[in-house]
Amino acid sequence: MKDKAQLAVFASGTGSNYDAIDRAIKQGELDAEVAILVCDRPGAQVIEKAEQNKVATFVFNPKDYQTKTDFEAEIAKQLREVKVDWIVLAGYMRLVGPTLLSAYQGKMINIHPSLLPAFPGLDAIGQALQAGVKVSGVTIHYVDQGMDTGKIIAQQPVKIEEDMTREGLQCKLQEVEHMLYPKTIQQLIKEGE
Ligand code: GRF
Asked: 91 CA to middle of ligand 1, Å?
């Protein structure tokens, strides 16, 4: 086993959480390495970020595969090659199937911008604003076969002010995410040692 925990970050979009993880590693706050970025959207911004850091990437288009099992088998192969310890989902916009779940059970986590079990799935921020709740927040949880249903690891609330815009809430939630995700990953790594 390598000295440092090897992470696979799965992302589909901007990659601000990827950035936060990378920053925490560089600042010595997270004792890990990003071994590979897995991205299901060719052209996503996060790919460029990983490439700038010389992190290996596996970018694929699900449409090029017949089934989820097919592309997940390919992902699993790539992860085995770089000896991944933890899968960290950071804005990976699809449900993980049994191929990866069985290989990385208890070693796969996700971050979600609500206090689960409230507002799972797409547009958690819009759902919270629509419901008129006064508090939302961020959840980090283990991944299971459901949509944001796995066992909760960490949560942090964020107050929703009276005239808060969607952008304002998103910004506050992301600030929390960028602090909470690296910190929680570090705790899990330490607990597993
Ligand atoms: C984050 O808000 C995360 O909670 C959700 O997807 C978003 C990803 O954002 N699962 P980014 O790509 O890390 O900026």
From this structure: 4
